[in-house]
Design brief:
- By secondary structure, the protein is of the alpha+beta class.
- Helices cover about 30% and strands about 25% of the residues.
- A hairpin with a 2-residue loop joins β6 and β7.
- α10 packs antiparallel against α12 and α14 runs antiparallel to α15.
- The N and C termini lie far apart (about 55 Å).
């Protein structure tokens, strides 16, 4: 039976600006008597605001201020209208999308179907195309209607339209030859200035088209790479928000005047991985032995003082189909030694683990190094910058590595990105035809019961194959000025700040 996916809201709601929720309304109503500037202390600096040519969370958080997509997520990660009013599958290979009629860019020019087509045509030529699996082309039906031509039905595709790299961009800005045309968006704020290593500032969009404009006049992101520096800056009132405060200073922060420490369950999965093309990691029993040798609880204690949840499966918590009841490989030194012997490595071997030169990776690596030594595996720790680490893992010159993955809406972005043969994010260089078939089935199967069975089978299969050893899901911890008004925090850390402000 043809599946029709509809988003329909009352006409009055369709004209409401993106980002509005019941909590957002409350925040907006308290807009008087607030500080003009909201200053957020971050653990990293921005590096690229070209939506489709970047992939870092800090960039996306900033771009949420300046750009909007066809759809957005509510607090529960449900897809709701934004620049589009509805989307429906016309047939298995066609999606029709209707747009709002009153949206405009920050330069005042109208946002229409030609901009949507331009954005997605461009996306197919950029690295973000990997998140548009199945899209062939986009056609204009009229000024406020487009049709997306697909290779076939996808359970996850419409959710991908909420991703900020698919924020709608202005075709006219590109055609004009304007420098950095990607900075023109339809969001509540406009990019103002970036001084590398010091701050990036965004100011209210005076031509914002919706009914829920930003509140603070300016929002500034201030990179303070040392976590202790962020704590001091918050205590001194130099910043209003401290992202990722060090867990060993939380009790001190809680005692600080006018500081609130917030903690909630997170979604970011930290994991240990191996390069399956390198010996001895091409041997499944070696990989299983390593999984048995790792003490997840000790890892989590060293990394986040226990503020997290150890898990067995490879899927982020909260995603559709999450299943964590397979046997997996618990911490068992004797079993690890037995598996190594069965694989022909009774005397162990020498290897390297490549990590980012930052917290929590250094702490995790030291625990794993000790765990491996206990079963006869001698591990040398190699550190490098995040970007270099990703390039090294993509090139496949590494052996073992540590990394993290945060996905909150599309299970396919875990299955396909991390484990599908040939994926650019498959740092394990894992290739398995059965796994690939199951990944495709979970994405396209219309029968919900069968899809759930396939998802459980796929997770169990990947856990048993052990290209990756999931370590823990870190809790979201954030500290801020107690006068901060913020509608809600997202478990993965990708917050929307346009409705946030500090009361005076």
């Amino acid at each position: 039976m043809r599946k029709i996916v509809l988003f329909s809201l009352l006409v009055s709601l369709l004209l409401v600006s993106c980002g509005k929720s019941s909590q957002g309304n409350k925040a907006s109503s308290g807009g008087s008597g607030h500080k003009k500037e909201l200053i957020i202390g971050t653990a990293v600096d921005i590096n690229n605001l070209n939506l489709q040519k970047q992939s870092d969370q800090i960039n996306n958080i900033c771009l949420k201020l300046t750009h909007q997509g066809l759809f957005q997520l509510d607090e529960q990660n449900n897809r709701i209208p934004c620049l589009a009013t509805e989307a429906k599958w016309i047939d298995d290979k066609t999606i029709e999308i209707s747009l709002v009629h009153n949206a405009c860019f920050s330069d005042g020019s109208p946002l229409t179907a030609k901009d949507v087509k331009f954005t997605f045509d461009m996306a197919l030529k950029n690295p973000v195309a990997s998140n548009l699996t199945g899209l062939i082309s986009t056609d204009i039906v009229d000024d406020y209607t487009v049709r997306m031509n697909m290779q076939g039905y996808s359970n996850d595709y419409l959710m991908s339209l909420t991703y900020i790299p698919f924020g709608i961009q202005s075709k006219a800005a590109y055609d004009s030859g304007k420098e950095e045309p990607w900075l023109i968006g339809s969001g509540q704020y406009v990019f103002d200035k970036w001084v590398e290593g010091e701050y990036s500032t965004f100011v209210k969009n005076e031509k914002y088209w919706g009914t829920n404009p930003g509140i603070a006049e300016r929002i500034t992101f201030k990179p303070l790479l040392e976590s202790s520096s962020r704590v001091i800056a918050l205590q001194n009132g130099e910043i209003d928000v401290c992202i990722d405060p060090p867990v060993d200073e939380l009790e001190l922060l809680k005692k600080s005047k006018n500081v609130t420490v917030h903690e909630q369950a997170g979604t970011r999965l930290f994991y240990f991985g191996v390069n399956c093309t390198k010996k001895p990691f091409d041997n499944e029993k070696v990989r299983q032995a390593i999984a048995c040798a790792i003490d997840r609880n000790s890892v989590m204690q060293a990394a986040v003082k226990g503020k997290g949840t150890p898990q067995t499966t490879i899927l982020n918590r909260g995603l559709w189909g999450f299943y964590d009841e397979m046997p997996g490989f618990n911490y068992d030194v004797e079993r690890a030694k037995k598996l190594l012997a069965e694989a022909g490595y009774a005397n162990g071997f020498n290897t390297t683990i490549t990590i980012a030169n930052s917290s929590p990776y250094t702490a995790i690596a030291q625990v794993i190094q000790a765990n491996m030594k206990a079963v006869g595996i001698n591990v040398e720790i190699k550190t490098m910058e995040d970007a270099t680490l990703k390039a090294t893992c993509k090139a496949g010159t590494h052996e073992m590595f540590l990394w993290r993955w945060n996905e909150t809406i599309r299970p396919d972005c875990v299955y396909r990105d991390l484990f599908y043969t040939g994926s650019g994010s498959n740092f394990h260089h894992y290739a398995d035809k059965k796994a690939d078939v199951l990944v495709d089935k979970v994405l396209t199967d219309r029968d919900l019961d069968q899809r759930k069975k396939d998802s459980i089978e796929l997770q169990t299969y990947l856990v048993n194959a052990c290209p990756q050893v999931p370590l823990y899901i870190a809790n979201l911890v954030i500290a801020y000025n107690s006068n901060l008004v913020m509608p809600f925090f997202r478990s993965g850390g990708d917050h929307e700040w346009f409705n946030a402000y500090v009361k005076e």
